[in-house]
Design brief:
The chain is an alpha/beta fold. The protein is built from 14 helices and 14 strands. The protein folds into 2 domains: 163 residues, 3-Layer(aba) Sandwich (Rossmann fold); 175 residues, Argininosuccinate synthetase, chain A, domain 2. The termini are far apart.
Length: 422
């Protein structure tokens, strides 16, 4: 720990241990005459935080702290997103976006606790995360000032690596391996380097949770996920702590290559970018949750909720987790989950996951009505009257339009007659 100088400004930095936040430590000291406390928030980035606190101190941080937020991350952010079937643009499970409001909330809380008046993050000026951090901090702790060195200095990755070398900083990124990785329990994102060209397939070297396709099992695997009120509680009958459950799903789905996402994404700041994700557990759990909802929720509620789910997802992506609208939509989603209790059987195989079975005491699929076999109690003779009434508005509208067109055509002179007038 570096000796504190009470005359200098105190800045609490959201520190990931990556390139952006590593160079931020000395940069803040140079440009803002400030001491830095590096704050790492553990949201399940296995391996990413190894040695990070020691590197922060060696790179000039006054202090380095770690907050274990994994349980809060699952309970307060991942589970509400799962209940809302949250997928941005129908593809991305919002792993990075969901972590940002929790990190921002923790950052602001620790800064206020330490008496600091400033916080900092390593976001660029062209990404989504700057919006998510800044909006959340302005909402929760408007008294805090925000510093963003990469954005303020308009640095690119080559500049950052050069700065790190010039200042003898310990970093992991190199010019030869320029990928930027963000990881948490819900997924892993990789950016930079060859991935910036949307026409070049992502190289196998960027994948970690799903391995090489040659290592994927040749045989399919099935597993059963139990839900209570829209939340997963067991895998194959084993009750698991929420954090352990997500990790187990990542491991088992990832082993089969599930969750690879290659997506051209519309960022909040108005540009498109090619994004590469690995979200095996999230994709598998979302498939199971949607399947169970289809069994227990009526059609009109499913259709209305689909619109709510899309808006919920957009708000999360856009950095508006703490907005009144997101909270109100979240409350609606929770109200729909009372009956989302049951079991779903998933089939994992060669990069895909499918729900192949589902059961619930709240099932709205009545076999005595749906069956085509003997014992059906569906009153088929009533279908004729139902169809007549169901189609009556269309029948009436079509008849009226047809009659009106015929009347108009009878009153309008033929085109040839108009042309032959003197």
């Amino acid at each position: 720990m570096t000796t504190s100088n009470p005359s200098r400004r105190h800045v609490v930095l959201a520190y990931s241990g990556g390139l952006d936040t590593s160079i931020a430590i000395p940069w803040i000291g140079e440009h803002h005459d400030a001491e830095v406390t590096a704050l790492s928030i553990d949201v399940g980035q296995e391996g990413e935080l190894t040695g990070a606190l020691d590197r922060a101190r060696r790179n000039g941080a006054r202090d380095a702290r770690l907050v274990d937020a994994k349980a809060a991350f699952v309970r307060e952010f991942l589970w509400p997103a799962l209940q809302a079937n949250a997928l941005y643009e129908g593809v991305y499970p919002l792993s990075t976006a969901l972590a940002r409001p929790l990190i921002a909330r923790t950052l602001a809380s620790v800064a206020l606790e330490l008496g600091a008046d400033t916080v900092a993050h390593g976001c660029t000026g062209k990404g989504n995360d700057q919006v998510r951090f800044d909006v959340a901090i302005h909402t929760l702790a408007p008294s805090l000032t925000i510093i963003a060195p990469v954005r303020e200095w308009n640095m690119n990755r080559d500049d950052e690596i050069r700065y790190a070398r010039d200042h003898h900083l310990e970093i992991r990124a190199t010019v030869e391996s320029p990928y930027s990785v963000d990881e948490n329990l819900w997924g892993r994102s990789v950016e930079g380097g060859r991935l910036e060209d949307p026409n070049r397939p992502a190289p196998e070297e960027v994948f970690d949770w799903t391995g090489h396709p040659e290592t994927w099992p040749k045989e399919a695997e099935t597993l059963v996920v139990d839900f209570e009120r829209g939340l997963p509680t067991r895998i194959d009958g084993r009750a698991l702590d929420p954090v352990d459950l997500v990790r187990e799903m990542n491991r088992r789905a990832g082993a089969h290559g599930v969750g690879r996402i290659d997506h051209v994404e519309d960022r909040v700041v108005g540009i498109k970018s090619r994004e590469t994700y690995e979200c095996p557990g999230a994709i598998a759990l979302l498939e199971a949750h949607r399947s169970l909802e289809s069994l227990v929720l009526p059609r009109d509620l499913l259709q209305f909720k689909a619109g709510v789910d899309r808006r919920f997802s957009d708000l999360v992506y856009e950095g508006l987790w703490f907005s009144p609208l997101r909270e109100a939509l979240g409350a609606f989603v929770v109200s729909t989950q009372e009956v989302v209790t049951g079991s779903v059987t998933l089939r994992l195989h060669q990069g895909s996951v499918r729900a192949v079975g589902r059961t619930s005491e709240y099932s709205l699929l009545a076999p005595e009505l749906a069956t085509f076999g003997a014992g059906s109690r569906f009153p088929q003779e009533l279908a004729v009257g139902f169809i007549h009434l169901y189609g009556l508005p269309n029948q009436l509208a079509h008849a009226r339009r047809t009659a009106a067109r015929a009347s108009t055509e009878a009153e309008t002179p033929a085109a040839g007659a108009l042309l032959n007038r003197p």
